[in-house]
Amino acid sequence: MSGTVKKITDVAFKASRNIDWDGMAKLLVSDEARKEFNNLRRAFDEVNSQLETKFSQEPEPINWEHYRKEIGPRLVDVYKEAYESIEIPKYVDTITPQYKPKFDSLLVELKEAEEKSLKESERLEKEIAEVQELKQKISTMTADEYFEKHPELKKKFDDEIRNDYWGY
Question: Where are the annotated coiled coils located (predicted)?
């Protein structure tokens, strides 16, 4: 096995151990995002599995002496010479340079979307808490208590009364 393939396999294996898939899955809010995330995870697992099984195993060395005894030295020497003359081309990665910038830009977009989603979730949590509080107090709340929480409405109503505008 070439050293490059072994390095790629080792990097992929280490990367798979460091990915917190469950933690990332908890951050997703939409069904479409969950679907895409599951597709990504499945594809990553498939590639990682192929790297582990196909490329991480060293091939068994050929026992030339065994074949010399069984078949005969002249024929085995011809095969050995032909086998050793085969030059296995080195893998040249031309794909990663094409997709690395795209992947990096997607990571930036992901971080921005994550921040935006967290801010929106925080805002919605506050709004839900306010609505639930209002729901509990609505039956006993006075107009002054309501206007205390919403001064912009009090100003609007005061302006309407002062200008003799009753909405019709």
Answer: 107-144
Query: pTM of the prediction?
Result: 0.38
SS3 content of the chain, % helix, strand, coil (to 5): 75, 0, 25
Tokens of 162: 């002062």
pLDDT band at 124 (very low <50, low <70, confident <90, very high): very high
DSSP code per residue over 18-80: H--HHHHHHH--SHHHHHHHHHHHHHHHHHHHHHHHHSSSPPPPP-HHHHHHHT-HHHHHHHH
The residue-averaged pLDDT of 77-101 equals: 86
pLDDT at residue 29, as a whole number: 83
Contact criterion met (CB below 8 Å) for 147 and 153: yes
pLDDT at 118 over 90: yes
Instruction: Give the up-direction half-sphere exposure of residue 92: CA atoms within 13 A in the CB hemisphere.
Output: 2
CA distance 136 to 145: 14
